[in-house]
Amino acid sequence: MKILVLNSGSSSLKYKLFSMHNEKPLLSGHVDGIGLDRCSAKIITSDKAEERKAPVKDHVDAVMLALKSLREKKVIRDYTEINAVGHRVVHGGEHYSEPVLIDDKVIRTIRELFDLAPLHNPHNLAGILACKKMLPRTPQVAVFDTAFHQTLLPEAYLYALPYELYEKHRIRRYGFHGTSHKYVSEQATRLLGKKESKIITCHLGNGASITAVKNNKSVDTSMGFTPLEGLIMGTRTGSIDPAIPLYLARHKSYKINDLDDLFNKKSGLLGISGLTRDVRDLHRASLKGDRRARLALRMFARRAAFYIGGYIALLGGLDALVFTAGIGEGAWFIRRDICRYLEPLGIIIDDKLNKKNQIIISKPNSKIKVYVIPTDEELQIARETKEVVETIRDSKN
Q1: What is the pLDDT of residues 367-395, one digit of tens each?
Q2: CATH code for the structural domain at 2-144
Q3: Which of 61, 145, 220, 376 is an active site residue?
Q4: 2-144 and 193-377: same fold?
Q5: Angle 84-90-96 (CA atoms, 0-180°, nearest 5)?
Q6: What does the alpha-carbon distance between residue 161 and residue 138 come to, in Å, rounded to a whole number?
Q7: Does residue 394 carry a catalytic annotation?
Q8: Domain assignments of the chain as residue spans, ordered by start
Q9: pTM of the predicted model, to two decimals?
Q10: CATH class in words for 193-377
């Protein structure tokens, strides 16, 4: 079985074709700058990578380019070899706790959720509609970022607002990065070799979130109604006093769009440091004595440790702490700073293993295992897509 996985962004399309008998990628690609003069396509096969300019005006063009690249690189001879297409869809609301075969009802629901994920769902849907046009007979599956967190209990997902705001407008914690948290928590469970487990997964990248996972189910997560809540991120504030936007609007003449831009694009590591959102550059600057760069890194680590400590309490203990995504996998100094806060809770890491980004970075005498597990959201989407398609096929036989 061959499954194509698509991740459609506002001006980009990431795609990967998997051969599911061994779960190996046959080809991956990234179309960046859709609709812009600078648009380019990067295509990676098992033996080489190439990048070229690509005059792509919309997502239909981008999907067409992706499909053509599969034939050009001879990983397929005909489009009928693609058995299914799995789509990353950011927001499924309360409608979906599992991946689902895409039909007209699913498309309507994704469109109805535009208001909850205006930066993501419209572009996710564009990729779906493009595939529907190009591959009309190929089953498509939506895998939702929010689905993994639908196991949260009301005391975890509700806000202390008038209850009718939840009843009328579904204002609640939804959580995000669910596909990544699910993948790495399952990997950690295998490493632990335990049927029952208490795991905290830290997806740390430009967008960052932490999830408490008990027996492979999400019980709490740091992102909320939107991906703005929780940890300090590359350009996002994370959790702040909700009176701050009210103060800025009432007394400093900030408009709604100004606040949106401020909290999502100008804050976080970038806003604190005044330099960059990239932790590697911040680390180099801090070593040269830049106080605000070091402050940004300290604030990031402190906030992460705060959530981890709280989640250990909610879980009633911890078997494993997992770091993943760009910062989590590659920034040893961030992991070190976070784990230093957690030493009183029994977490002891090996500095040499940590600097080498090894899978297990905790010392043998650490009460809690600490893992660095590369995330693979595309593979997780491919697995879930395969499961949906096979279930439907079996039900017809």
Answers
A1: 999 999 999 999 999 999 999 999 988 77
A2: 3.30.420.40
A3: 145
A4: yes
A5: 75
A6: 44
A7: no
A8: 2-144, 193-377
A9: 0.92
A10: alpha beta
